[in-house]
Amino acid sequence: LEMASLVSYQEGQIVSRTLIQNRALSITLFAFDAGEEISAHESKGDALVYVLDGAAAITIDEKQHALNAGECIVMPAGIPHAVNARQPFKMLLIVAFPV
Predict the structure, then answer these.
(1) If you count Cβ atoms within 10 Å of the first and of the last residue's Cβ in the chain, which end, N or C, has fewer?
(2) pLDDT digit of tens for each residue in the chain (99 aa)?
(3) What is the phi-psi region of residue 19: left when phi exceeds 0, alpha when psi lies from -120 to 50, beta otherwise?
(4) What is the pTM of this model?
């Protein structure tokens, strides 16, 4: 499968497609239109964001990181983080929860 093709951009929206969801693991694809965001929040699991297409600003503990296609970052559990689409972008989000 070509991951980026499994989720489509929608004007003014964030689109998601869950691939795996259980008590230990969550794997979800997202497509963000430019300017869309997920505001600051915390997760109970460590999360890896892999940018498939476009560019995003990922804020972790109030420090902003610019990511482009092909780059990834880890968002540690219990630390506030946010996602903002600098342009339309797609990401693969993998969250590992403690069991």
Answers:
(1) N
(2) 899 999 999 999 999 999 999 999 999 999 999 999 999 999 999 999 999 999 999 999 999 999 999 999 999 999 999 999 999 999 999 999 999
(3) alpha
(4) 0.95
